[in-house]
Amino acid sequence: SNVSGMTGRGLEIVPDRQYAKERVLVRVYDLGKTVLTRWHNQVTKSYGAFHSGVEVCGREWSFGMTFDDYSTGVTWNPPTQNPDHSFRETLCMGYTSKSPRQVMEIINGMKKEWKGCTYHVLSRNCHSFSDELCSRLGVGRLPAWVN
Which family does it belong to (predicted)? Predict the structure, then answer.
């Protein structure tokens, strides 16, 4: 067939490569590494002190404070392996329709928007970031108890 004036195999229109849908998981941690925090959160889940990160495409992404005006607050670690907090549980948020490349484009955009100096313990924290990333990936919002 004739495509854009070229015949035969001169120009092929190939759809995006098929990929498996990526599962989106929220990893919830007890703040810090102390037994006291884990005990408190066990007793009063609705008023707990938690950290969260979003796992997608094999990496867990989260947001935290930095001590300068230019560094991103967005970092990653292997799933369930945040070095500063004690892993608690996993929430399955569903599957994103985004390709791995689109996922990285979203995250790279968020790295620019989420500077570590903009961190605020109540209004712009790891949970705000996790909620926003889940939203941009097209899956559900974080449950209220996490924040």
Answer: Belongs to the DeSI family.
